[in-house]
TrEMBL record:
Name of this chain's protein: GTPase HflX
Source superkingdom: Bacteria
SUPFAM superfamilies named among the record's database cross-references: P-loop containing nucleoside triphosphate hydrolases (SSF52540)
Organism: Longimonas halophila
Similarity comment: Belongs to the TRAFAC class OBG-HflX-like GTPase superfamily. HflX GTPase family.
Main location: cytoplasm
Molecular function per GO: GTP binding; GTPase activity; metal ion binding; ribosome binding
UniProt-annotated stretches for the region Disordered: 432-455
Basic and acidic residues: compositionally biased ranges: 432-441
Keyword Cytoplasm: yes
Amino acid sequence: MIATSPDTTETAIIVGVITPDTSRWAVRDNLNELEQLARTAGAHVVERVTQSRTRIDPATFIGSGKVKEVKRLVKQHNADLVIFDDDLAPVQVRNIERKMDAKLLDRSGLILDIFAGRAQTAAAKTQVELAQLQYLRTRLTRRWTHLSRQKGGIGTKGPGETQIETDRRLIDKRIATLREKLEKIDQQRTTQRKARHGYTQVSLVGYTNAGKSTLMNAMADESVLAEDQLFATLDATTRNITLGGTEEVLLSDTVGFIRKLPHRLIESFKSTLDEVRTSDLLLHVIDVTHPRFEDHMRVVDETLDELDAQDIPRLLVFNKVDALDDTHLLRALRRDYPDAEFVSALRGIGVESLKEELLARIRADYVERTAVLPVTEPALIAQIHRDADVLTEEYTYTDEEDGAAPQAIARIQYRSSEKYDQRLTERIEALDFGHTERDESNAEPAVARADASAA
Ligand SMILES: Nc1nc2c(ncn2[C@@H]2O[C@H](COP(=O)(O)OP(=O)(O)OP(=O)(O)O)[C@@H](O)[C@H]2O)c(=O)[nH]1
Ligand SMILES: [Mg+2]
């Protein structure tokens, strides 16, 4: 965040285009969102400009007459910034900038700026800088890149002036360094994540400002930053919560999604979003009070696709029901989404029922199996205890000629998802131990399915 005191707040004019496939209403809502983004970045929007066009002008995006109008408004308001709701091609940036005396930003540039101001950890900073450099690389000719870097302000945060003012080669070198740094961070993350194996992982996902962090606080009785601001959360935060007194769950709060999230940003945030990808279940939080919440749901679905997380089971959580006056909508939603939960994260309404549903979903995933384990393999037994709930354990002695081999017959209960099956199997195989009962027909090494009805 920058420039929030009145004397340093930058003034901005925002520009949107109404095309045959975007309605006037949609553009109005999109500009509302852009204004909120601008505010988050520290700018004050003084004017909105829209234009209906059947096709985009390849040279200046909006028509040349409209460019003149914007130019006049910049003068009139002494505006610092002109922000387009759509992404501009580098040539359009050049052409428009030549015509007016203000910094020009497009949606991606603005979002990247917010991310740069928000990034706290080494990982987030590296990811954002990488995305920014890739974005700026194609826009090196920007007039203001040279002029107003010294001045600072929106759109100039992040990589310092030396990197921007130098040529592409330097940027490429920096990009390579950042990539290496990210790779190292990734390795650390992978190690941390491995340490969490055996836990049920649940992630809160959703459009920005939907109330994910607030819900996290309500569920975990612990504080994370929740603000009426876009992208309050940039790094995934994880809390340990206990459901039903026994079930330990790792709950992660993640970065919010937004329409037209710059692709590069998703790319570089992929590792942060690994929390999402390795989750057992996703809680998709939706702000029901937002007029375009259905569009938001679609954006979240699309972003999850892009992250390869489309197959992870999801529980829809309609949030902010306390602020919803429209009882018709609530009734319609309950009818259309019978499996969804309705909560107010802020007031704590429905949170217990959400927890119960979460627990039920997790429990439904469990299967019971019988495992026959040799007592001579304490490491294996310890791991089984870590990964599964051991319901009963009996020790038997078999009368084999090569001596009595004590065995433990354990009745175990654990998650049946592919991820867990694989995990347990890998662990057992890693011990290089071949004596456990094998049910070849089921292709389940080491652990034999004993009670299919429990599945
Ligand atoms: N009325 C009402 N407001 C809520 C509720 N839950 C969250 N809010 C408000 O919505 C705003 C956004 O909440 P956050 O929890 O920061 O949202 P988020 O999804 O984490 O947002 P990002 O991290 O920016 O993606 C805050 O002002 C919250 O107080 C709710 O149940 N009811
Ligand atoms: Mg948040």
